[in-house]
Amino acid sequence: LFGRKAGTLASFQRYSPALQASGVVWNERSLDSWLAGPARFIPDSRMPFEGIEQPAIRSDLIAYLKKATAANNAESGARVGVPGDPDLKKLKPESKVLSITYCPDTYRVTTGDGKTLAFWERNLRFKTDSSTIGPDKGAPALFGAGMQGDRASVIFSSPEEISAFVKRQC
Predict the structure, then answer these.
(1) What distance in Å separates the CA atoms of residue 92 and residue 59, rounded to the nearest whole number?
(2) 66-115, pLDDT tens digit by residue?
(3) What whole-number distance in Å separates Cα of residue 78 and Cα of residue 68?
(4) φ, ψ for residue 149 (rounded to 5)?
């Protein structure tokens, strides 16, 4: 991160044109300005984050980022882990998805511990993670969401897996 020009990491393809054209090189000062208010620092950057007002919190975050990115993992194409971000190749049975069926308005997800969980179609989200800690092909991961256990995300290794994995079955 530090010393790299903003909007240039090849493994990330969703930078705004404004960020790519900014000419900003990330260092403590530029990160502090960005974290204080992305829209003020680089107008039209499309960053939905409003900023952090407290200088001490920004300083702590910058110190963390400096340490977390010191190994230059991002340049190698590896995903820089976020604390609590699990390695989706190493899952407990209750997080391993064995099958998904769909029958009018309900998905049923069977997991490695033998349980089948029912989710209303609007409460189950399908996502992908192609990073080095993403799931193996054919081994999607299930993560609960919502306060009442009524929502979840299934994370696949690629978009092509989603339609191949979900079977219409009543």
Answers:
(1) 36
(2) 888 775 544 444 444 444 567 889 889 999 999 999 999 999 999 999 99
(3) 13
(4) 70, 15
